[in-house]
Write a structure and sequence with these properties.
This protein is an all-alpha fold. Helix 1 packs antiparallel against helix 3. InterPro entries: Pants/Emi1-like.
Length: about 100
């Protein structure tokens, strides 16, 4: 029976830049550019898509442990899509938004 230290194996997270490349490719399409021009009155310079692709390519040069840590940190920094409220806060918010609808009864 060996008393060797067990190595913790984290699931390997694959970083794929395909979605970033596809988003960049679509950004330069006439469909996207005309849509941006119609909605905002200006063309999209696609800098955000370039930044995402470069960031993804930089991640691919790092070790798997470092990539895992970077991705974990990013996920924790993202804000949650839902705002959680206590029942009292929810009732106050609801009445503020829709309480006027009860006045007509």
């Amino acid at each position: 029976m060996s008393m060797e230290k067990e190595e913790v194996v984290l699931p390997r997270r694959k970083v794929s830049c395909t979605t970033c490349f596809d988003a960049l490719w679509f950004c330069y399409s006439p469909v996207h550019q005309l849509q941006q021009y119609y909605r905002l009155g200006s063309l999209d310079n696609c800098s955000g898509k370039w930044n995402a692709l470069v960031d993804c390519l930089k991640l691919k040069t790092k070790g798997s442990q470092e990539v895992h840590e970077i991705l974990e940190t990013r996920e924790k920094e993202k804000s949650h899509i839902w705002t959680f409220r206590t029942p009292e806060e929810a009732a106050t918010h609801w009445n503020g938004m829709f309480g006027h609808l009860d006045d007509g009864k």
